[in-house]
Specification:
This protein has about 290 residues and is an alpha+beta fold. The protein has 3 helices and 16 strands.
């Protein structure tokens, strides 16, 4: 038995209790919002199903198609969360994604991508940022739990000061808007999708999807949205920078001391790739890496 891993998970659990109280207590997010209130199917209508009167949806993928959905509105800042259970079993090549994305050329995007695997190997969680159409900002994690067994909460905080990727309210990645770095400047919609990424997702594209195990099914819950709706306004997200929005207020402009400790712990234990240290990709690291 891996006692060190068990102890590490125990430490993370204790920190969750402390972080929950600071980050998410008292913010008043509406619960049990149905899918149809905030989202619509974007593609793969035949590979989408609604359960429990819209409180849960499933996306399916087989050799004919996957599926995806998107928010009805676009946003200029906010905290966007969803509870997700990713497909289990031999899912090599299959990608489950939850992300923010703008439309048109030079797009901005903030990604969670779960990269499937085979033969009992763990699913990788990849995070990425596209800024004015430029990506290649991947960080990857092997989580302290199996994301195929139960629902877990994945959150994206985007405000004028920072982008924070949360897993069960734990910050695992922070991208600060400082020192002249590129930063999202376009309204974005919230999207989720299930698709075939076997040209790159598992073992660098060497592992292809075994369709004999299909359909693969991803499950989604909790469709409330806390964001600054920018529809009908200028495309300038500056309209959503006011500190009157709770997600832009002082305590969301930086990690607390407790969050910072947990952030450092998770990254030291569970992150297995960081583009900032990949010299085969960047001889000189991008500005945000310093």
């Amino acid at each position: 038995m891996d006692y060190m891993r068990i102890f590490s998970v125990f430490v993370v659990t204790l920190w969750i209790i402390r972080v929950d109280a600071r980050v998410f207590g008292g913010r008043g997010i509406e619960k049990f919002v149905t899918f149809g209130q905030n989202y619509v199917v974007k593609w793969g209508q035949s590979h989408f199903s609604t359960l429990h009167s819209g409180e849960e949806v499933d996306l399916y993928i087989d050799q004919s198609s996957g599926g995806g959905f998107e928010s009805k509105d676009s946003y200029g800042s906010g905290l966007f969360e969803m509870r997700i259970k990713v497909p289990g079993g031999n899912t090599g090549g299959i990608v489950t994604a939850f992300y923010l994305t703008s439309k048109g050329g030079g797009h901005d995007e903030i990604d969670f991508e779960f990269l499937g695997n085979n033969n009992g190997k763990p699913v990788t969680l990849q995070t990425n940022l596209f800024l004015n159409g430029e990506g290649n900002r991947e960080e990857r994690f092997l989580l302290w739990f199996n994301p195929t067994k139960h629902y877990h909460t994945y959150g994206l905080l985007w405000n004028p000061y920072q982008i924070v990727f949360y897993v069960d309210n734990i910050p695992i990645r922070v991208y600060k808007n400082e020192n002249g770095v590129s930063y999202p400047s376009k309204p974005m919609q919230v999207e989720a999708s299930l698709w075939n990424g076997d040209d790159w997702a598992t073992d660098g594209g060497r592992t292809k999807v075994n369709w004999s195990y299909s359909p693969f099914i991803a499950h989604f819950r909790d469709f409330a949205l806390s964001g600054c709706n920018i529809d009908g306004r200028s495309n300038n997200v500056g309209a959503c920078e006011s500190s009157n929005y709770w997600w832009n207020a002082g305590k969301y402009q930086r990690l607390s001391g407790n969050e910072q400790k947990l952030y450092e712990h998770v990254r030291s234990k569970y992150m297995n790739y960081d583009y900032c240290t990949d010299r085969s990709k960047y001889q000189t690291p991008p500005r945000e890496c310093y």
